[in-house]
Amino acid sequence: MNSQSWKKLIITLFRVAIGWHFLYEGLAKLWTVNWTATGFLANATGPVAGFYHWMASSEGLMNIIDPVNIAALILIGIALFLGVAIRYAAIGGIALLMLYYFAYPPFGGSLFAPAEGSLFLVNKNLIEAIALLGILLMKEKGYGIYALPWFQLKKKADEEQVPVNPQFANSRREALKNLATLPALGIIGLGAFRESQEFGVDTLSGATIQVGGADISQLKGALPKGKLGKHEISRLVFGGNLIGGWAHSRDLIYVPSLFRAYNTEKKIFETLMLAEKAGIDTINIGFPTMETMVKYRKLTGSNIKVIVQVHPDMENNDYFVNLDKAVDMGMDIIQVQGNWCDWLVRDNRLDVIDKMLERIRSHGLTAGLASHTVDALIACEEQGIIPDYYMKTMHHDQYWSAHPMENRFPFEVDGKKHLDHNRFHDNCFCLFPDRTVEFVQRAKVPVMGFKVLAAGAITPEDGFKWAFENGADFICVGMFDFQVVNDVNITIDVLNNLKNRKRDWVA
Fold first, then answer.
1. What digits encode the pLDDT tens for the residues 337-373?
2. Which site in 64, 171, 188, 463 is 20 to 30 Å from 148, CA atoms measured?
């Protein structure tokens, strides 16, 4: 194969790869029931966000935009893949990609901790648009239908001064090369269709995301905010347990699997976009959920702040391995995980907690310390180990499944689950509410209450009020999409009518 043939082959592969991306994007949306770009447009950011919001606000306009978007993706993809009308496809592709780019432009965020695939000023949409510009400007377009004799002869008729290249007019072998993308498209398309039939369609590939859920028109107002370190965040923080599948469902063993089945990646992203629209601007997640949040921020252009819980690797005496990974992945706030704080205090390893907090601060980040058992925080306080904020389980025990006070023991949360109904069995997370309230009242740093609903045993109206009245500056609550608007409204109502709070707002 000579150099010219290699050049044509490389350009063909390059063009076909971009074409397949466009085509798959279009088919994914076509095969998704009730797909719409409304959520993508309604949550747009950047200097021209108003234009996208205007489009999303009109149902009639969206009835035009959605099918046009799908058709454009499919037609551009087919044209690039097969090599027909390449110039027009390239121009249309560039225009479409730049519309996606300016909907969530990578102009903000941390310059030195970018999300994968979305660096400062540059993201995959811009890179692919530049690639299409190269295809548009290059004289050589690779193999494709455009080079078949019929197209060449038609071109000659249109442009009489340009002779037909005999290489295309007379070579059967060359014609077969130019037709090679036809069976390739059929094979790849058939594979994608079969995969979609078996596994469903990943509608998060690329630039548009479907958003459903509760009606946000019922929102009562703006969600109040407070200061956590250098960050101003909503007083209602999105909890990560439900999207991570940690249900704390007592002896209902099917519930964690049910949570994971409901909260697919697509549903998680829909829920987070709804939460942000409702005013929740921060999420607290477990370490395993970190990559999901990086992907979410990359795909949507979201500015949601992420608090991540980290733990040491005690087996290898590496206290910072997870902490440093969280820093590298651009997390905004880092806290020592609650169960690990309890275990380290229980095992008299407070030095590890101290070192982890200092390591977080050395990166210029806000350092939190979480705990289920108030004894752990008291022990740290006595040793002068004070974080930038506490995160403490905060709920009362006036619910049916709470086991008797006399049978509660420090550090038993995340421990053995007893079959005795009067002992701990994943059912009580703030073991000593009175001692917790006493500790929170004297805390000099902000306090974020979590498990305020005792994993679903307490109503939001009751749990939110109890936590805020007893000193919490923020509450962290796991929510499904259909609960988001109600939880935001309840938080607004509680904070507007809070009468029995004694502790000053620290944040």
1. 999 999 999 999 999 999 999 999 999 999 999 999 9
2. 188
Looking at residue 487, which CATH number applies to its domain? Answer: 3.20.20.100
Contact (Cβ atoms closer than 8 angstroms) between residue 16 and residue 178: no
Q: Is the residue at 452 inside a domain?
A: yes
- Asked, for residue 150, whether it belongs to a domain, the answer is no
Q: Token pair for residue 227?
A: 């200061």
Q: What is the pTM of this model?
A: 0.64
408 and 302 in one domain?
Answer: yes
Q: Tell me, what amino acid is at 126?
A: L
The number of distinct structural domains making up the chain is: 2
Identify the residue with better confidence: 28 or 175.
28
Whether 283 is in a domain gets the answer: yes
Integer-rounded Cα Rg, in Å, for the chain is: 28
Q: What percent of the chain has pLDDT over 90?
A: 54
Q: What number is the average pLDDT over the span 470-474?
A: 98
Count CB atoms within 10 A of the CB of residue 64. 11
* DSSP structure string for 76-116: HHHHHHHTSSHHHHHHHHHHHHHHHHHHS-S-SS-TTSPBT
- In the numeric block, which tokens belong to residue 357? 């907090």
Which residue carries 């752990």 as its tokens? Answer: 376
- Neighbour-count burial of 230, counting CB atoms closer than 10 A to its CB (0-12 exposed, 13-18 middle, 19+ buried): exposed
Q: What are phi and psi of 476, to 5 degrees?
A: -115, 120
